[in-house]
Amino acid sequence: MPATVFALVLAASAALAVRPATAAVAATLQGLLWVAVVAALAVAAARATADRAAWALFASGTAVLVLARLALYAAAGSPLVDPVVLERHGSLVLATLLGYPLFYAAQVALLRRRLHRVRSPWLDGALAVLLLAAACSALFLDPLQRATGMGAVTIAAAVARPSMDVLMAVYALTTCSLLGWRPDRRLPLVAAAFTVLAAADVTDLLRLAGAAGPAAAGAAAGPVAVAVDVARLCAGALLVLAARQPAPRLPRRHAEGWPVLLAPVGVLLGSVALLLVDRWSRLPDAAVVLTFAAVGGVTVKVALAFDELIRLLGSARQAVTDDLTGLANRRALFQRLAGAAAGGRDTGLLLVDLNRFKEVNDTLGHHRGDDLLRAVAARLTGCLPQEALLTRLGGDEFAVVLPGAGIADGHRVAEDVLTALAEPFTVGGLAVHVGASIGVAATGAAQQAAGPVPGGDAELLRQADTAMYVAKRAGGGVAVYDEAVDRAARDRLALLDDLRAGIAAGQLVLHYQPQVDLRTGGVVGMEALVRWQHPQHGLLPPAAFLDLAEERGLMTSITEEVLRQAVAEAVRWREAGRPLRVAVNLATSCLLDAALPGRVRDVVAAAGLDPRALVLEITETTLMSDPERSRRTVAGLLGTGAGVSIDDYGTGYSSLAYLRDLPAVELKLDRTFTARAARDERSAAIVAGTADLAHSLGMRLLAEGVEDAATLHRLGELGVDETQGYHHARPMPAGQVLGWLEQRGSAARGGRRPPAPVR
């Protein structure tokens, strides 16, 4: 459609230029072309996927202009309108101005859709209109009155057209600048359309004044008149072309920076220029009045801008201030750190976490906790250096930025903070004591241990946070960031991720260590000991990962996997004619899991193993973590038919109450007594006494850690029932158990010890 419109315009222009047409033919041709332009705009607006309302307004404004212009042509009987017709039909001249409010509304709609907030856009437009009206009055009012004899109202209406055109073009260009000159091809086309229209209307004014071409009615259209008509049609075609362009998908932005000031500054400079001209060459009174009105509008605009500045300052302060304490917040912290980094200065950072704050909240209520935080903020403010920035990060956590400080300076300030917090706070009439755990980190050349911080502000905060947790684990005080400790923590975290994946991937494997009956010398059981076949680090012992698993809540998953493998292996032994029991260790978290007995019952039943062939080993320390809950879980385990063994007996609390209340089947004597039994009579007496106690309670006594024949012989003399240790065999993979048992039987028949299993 735009191409068709341009083709029609160019063809008509060429025809008029080569062979002047009669007035009727020219009017009819222009009318048809304008109808085509309006129709094309209406179709483009209907098909627009974005900003449809704006393009509908452009189409409506163009239709108003076209109707008013065609009415003037009809009144004049020719497209060449003369001053007499304009004066006689002043209402039609005024009607041509009614399209511009629609154009202006369309441009405001385009702007508002892309800016979050546009204050007083109508005022900017009014200022531009006043200045343009003043300038046009100064330039055209007197010359037009002298040349045409038209009245002031008619002249003002005629002069307003090019003024409005310039305003529309400037507004489109200003919108481009406000949007950062984004690739929106529609706005430059709109600006070009109104620039062409302004040039056409100014030329028409000059023609009315007799300065360019004929102005008399009925005269043949000369080259200037043809150029004016063609330019107006081209302006309409440019609007159609703009409406057909795809709308870019741009995020909404805030109007900020110098483009916001374009309208008031431009109007003020133009007004000053007109007033200076008035000093040397008297301007019409209307131009002077309009100029002073524009200056007054600029004053209103400045007042609005000042109010907006105050609002922005208030919003900016709120954005970097903690509501509760009035201190700076996390946003302000990062701004200060970024500023220090940009200036190349060393920067120290303290992270302060209050101790026992949760007790205050839980005991006295959250409102008292808020009172305490405000009191802490006030006290810290008084003990810090003047250049320090104290911020509250949230909860009971504070941070201190120390510009130009290194590790040593940060440690000294941290000690001052601890001293300030050592004094009690009065909260709700009570004296409340809070300590703190403080982490110290620094960046720049002054950082001693860790070197420059490569990750910027967030990395510095992470380092301080790491040091703070070191201090918290130590019970409070000050800790300085240590790269070695941090690396170890990261390695543990990486190992934890690997462990989670390894459990799911079946990387846990079991090794088994025999348990031997001292009376018969036969193997009666195997203890299952978990290992981790890590893809990179190889076979890892339990000490390398079980503590981490217990700390991070993975012991339940590990225990289930160990149970499944151990029970399945015990079934294979029985199928091979080796009815051995299997022992599995339970961690503290397992005994706190009320669902454990049910899972044990399910695993044993699924494998088809006699539950009496399963022994679950627990330690006294494990039982003490939560005695009542642990007892309930142990009772549930006993209900499955499995046996319970009290592991590491003699090293924990050795409470006889547990032996009384828990019907365990086995006591497992710790290796510290086993190793010394052959040479220390006191240790031997403890072993003998423990054996008597176990037998009296209907339990067997198993001694672990047996490493030589002398110890084995002495334990037999002291009444130990079963033994386990390197003297019999080291822990071996599941695939070697049956072979080792066969070799041991052959060696026993031949009077020799079996060979050690392959590790």
Q: Helicity level, as a percent range?
A: 55-70%
Distance N terminus to C terminus?
A: 86 Å
Mean pLDDT: 77
Oligomeric status: single chain
Number of strands: 17
Question: Looking across the biggest beta sheet, what order are the strands in?
Answer: 8-9-11-12-13-14-15-16
Low-confidence stretches: 16-21, 211-221, 252-259, 445-455, 750-759
Number of helices: 29
Short description:
The chain has 759 residues and is α/β, with parallel strands linked by helices. It is built from 29 helices and 17 strands.
Observed structural traits:
759 residues, alpha/beta, eight-stranded mixed barrel, five-stranded mixed beta sheet, 29 helices, 17 strands, 59% helix, elongated, disordered C terminus
How is this structure best described in words?
This protein is an alpha/beta fold. The chain is 59% helix and 13% strand. It has 29 helices and 17 strands. An 8-stranded mixed barrel has the order 8-9-11-12-13-14-15-16, surrounded by 4 helices. A 5-stranded mixed sheet has the order 2-3-1-6-7, with helices on both faces. A two-stranded antiparallel sheet has the order 4-5.
